[in-house]
Design goal:
This protein is α/β, with parallel strands linked by helices. Strand 2, helix 2 and strand 3 form a beta-alpha-beta unit.
């Protein structure tokens, strides 16, 4: 049976460290502050926001919520973002996307100051990930994958890794982060031929396609570690990932559960980025 790489263990260790760092900042008169920008009342946005508020409380981060109507104009939103950019008390910004269709995503996300872009949505932040330099922050979910691997002592140096999915949010950035950790990385996607044979001999699989049942038993070997990033729902409404968990659990070395794996670590990475931004500002 596989070792279950639970997110809670990672979160508990992170929270203790982050709270200590927050208290050190407050002793210097600096309170780390996260701004949450949300347009409308999308249930998934609001659910994530509730989780972020709880995690902020546990890590000593103050949250300012900026909730706007879904029909606000692009110019109005840009004006609000500029106010946030100029507010020295705010260290990080989480802006929920996708934005309403009448708003140009590229224009708005790149209006955010990169030093406050704690979820890696600006072009400058993404360029920092690809160049391996400290500019902005990587996407929180991609870094959550890396944090889990680090916490459970999964050796990436020289490891062969398959990343299933090439999104700008997870697949591409996590591939770059894995390369920086000295792994050899293959990125698979919808046009990949015979994906199972490519993945079967890998030491690690990062499953981030966003489609239930993508990774089946044909992808697996007994020595693998699998990080299942996706959130899907089966025909009974039960949350699941991209991986056939029942097959994987009896085959591979270790796997993250869904729920209770990567998603639970993501909000802690968000708080880590806010506190890091505050520390940089306090220097």
């Amino acid at each position: 049976m596989a070792q279950i790489l639970k997110g809670k263990e990672v979160v508990d260790a992170l929270n203790a460290d982050l709270l200590q760092r927050s208290e050190a900042l407050k002793a210097k008169g600096v309170t780390p502050v996260l701004a949450i920008v949300r347009l409308g009342e999308r249930p998934d946005d609001m659910a994530y926001e509730r989780g972020a508020l709880k995690r902020a409380e546990k890590t000593g981060v103050t949250v300012k919520q900026f909730v706007f109507p879904e029909d606000m104009t692009q110019d109005q939103l840009l004006a609000e973002i500029e106010k946030i950019n100029q507010d020295d008390s705010i260290h990080g910004v989480l802006m929920f996307r996708p934005l309403p269709r009448h708003i140009d995503d590229e224009t708005v996300r790149n209006a955010l100051a990169p030093e406050k872009d704690v979820d890696g949505i600006t072009d400058i932040s993404q360029a920092g990930v690809y160049a391996g330099v400290d500019k902005g922050f990587p996407p929180c979910t991609a870094e959550a994958c890396m944090e889990i691997l680090k916490h459970y002592d999964v050796n990436l140096r020289g490891a062969n890794v398959a990343v299933v999915g090439r999104s700008q949010v997870i697949g591409k950035p996590v591939a770059m982060m894995l390369i920086k950790a000295n792994a050899t990385v293959t990125v698979c996607h919808t046009k990949t031929v015979d994906m199972a044979s490519i993945c079967r001999d890998k030491d690690v699989i990062i499953a981030a396609a966003g489609h239930r049942g993508t990774v089946t038993k044909d992808f697996l070997n007994p020595g693998q570690t699998i990080i299942d990033v996706a959130i899907n729902f089966d025909e009974n409404g039960k949350m699941c990932g991209d991986v056939d968990f029942a097959e994987a659990e009896k085959t591979v070395k270790a796997i993250t559960p869904v729920p209770g794996g990567v998603g639970s670590v993501t909000t802690s990475m968000l708080m880590k980025h806010v506190i890091t931004a505050a520390e940089k500002k306090a220097l």
